[in-house]
Amino acid sequence: xxxxxxxxxxxxxxxxxxxxxxxxxxxxxxxxxxxxxxxxxxxxxxxxxxxxxxxxxxxxxxxxxxxxxxxxxxxxxxxxxxxxxxxxxxxxxxxxxxxxxxxxxxxxxxxxxxxxxxxxxxxxxxxxxxxxxxxxxxxxxxxxxxxxxxxxxxxxxxxxxxxxxxxxxxxxxxxxxxxxxxxxxxxxxxxxxxxxxxxxxxxxxxxxxxxxxxxxxxxxxxxxxxxxxxxxxxxxxxxxxxxxxxxxxxxxxxxxxxxxxxxxxxxxxxxxxxxxxxxxxxxxxxxxxxxxxxxxxxxxxxxxxxxxxxxxxxxxxxxxxxxxxxxxxxxxxxxxxxxxxxxxxxxxxxxxxxxxxxxxxxxxxxxxxxxxxxxxxxxxxxxxxxxxxxxxxxxxxxxxxxxxxxxxxxxxxxxxxxxxxxxxxxxxxxxxxxxxxxxxxxxxxxxxxxxxxxxxxxxxxxxxxxxxxxxxxxxx
Length: 476
Description:
Elements: H1 3-10, H2 14-22, H3 28-46, E1 49-52, H4 54-70, E2 81-85, H5 112-119, E3 123-128, H6 162-169, E4 175-180, H7 186-192, E5 195-198, E6 215-220, H8 223-233, H9 251-254, E7 263-266, H10 277-292, E8 297-300, H11 309-318, H12 322-332, H13 338-345, H14 350-373, E9 376-380, E10 396-397, E11 400-401, H15 412-417, E12 421-428, E13 434-440, H16 446-459
Parallel strand pairs: 2-3, 2-4, 7-8, 7-9
Antiparallel strand pairs: 1-3, 4-6, 5-6, 5-12, 9-13, 10-11, 12-13
Helix pairs in contact: 1-3, 3-4, 6-7, 11-14
């Protein structure tokens, strides 16, 4: 397969690929081979995958091709290659969680969302890299080489769905799965220049079925591609105690919807967050598109709460099996990420947990008020452009000293409140680095978020802008 053939297939989005495979215009085997060639070319630079399963992907693709030739049903994702974040189980494949401890732990069964994608005809190319236990917003861990940003391999891709973001942006796969507890789909989508969607909690069955803030969602090149995956991924799952029944959601129709006449709230800093002026300039210009070109009314807002980061981190820890994690730390601390060890060993108390829940209740009440006043909200996705690889974050933003994670102030409130949110490519800095804009909707207003994202995509399309990480890095 020559370069032109590889590039042509790898630049097709999921919706186009599925349509052409189903019509037998292209072969699902050739699509997997093209992805494999792109991975072979770019993976020495990106390290987006922790495990590759190309051979099994080719076998699945060949079986789908045979069924198409026989006129049999093949499912709505007919041969679509996907990447699966290494926090999600695929039977017979290691689930390492980005940890040396679990690097060789083979999954005994597929997670529910993987079952659904496979039943719909998707084929997995492998597991995408993640920071250890997804407990970070960057792309490195102790178990595998660090994932790099396709726009400049010396920079972070963001995280924790770091490998998924880099793989989709670089054309290694048309779509990938991420998980999102603090922005882990939206942050790498922003830093890698792709679309990332965090659904309302409960719509997509979770990995462990016991996390009130984390959910699985699609990372794609277009809004339509995310809607295609959502049409397969959602629905009640009895193994997930937080799963809810879903019926009558027209996901793909939403990706063609209009936003004219909608009311939009915009905040550049939540009233307290330091934001890089480069990000502010790009996102303000993008927000104005909704008023000047898409027929919306845009007003500025501030949520009115104080920075809730500590309370959020407390809730994250409450969602862990803290006893088991402390046993792991006692045995393996030297092999683990220092920030994970510190969080697990921190002396959390009852007042921390009750105070965090009280903060979440106040935030929920305020978010309900805002999403009654506005159809959707706009913010920057993250406060800074991509920064140096192997760092947890900058020490200064806009001239202010900051904590290591103070660069992600905008994403985790949606997780605390279970609301849908997406990151769209808002534009690029003068140095060619992507900047994301976040769209937040009311709880179960997922189709509104997709409509807003799709409307912006039509006004400011991004899918044809491609990095070439294997050839020449972007300027630092």
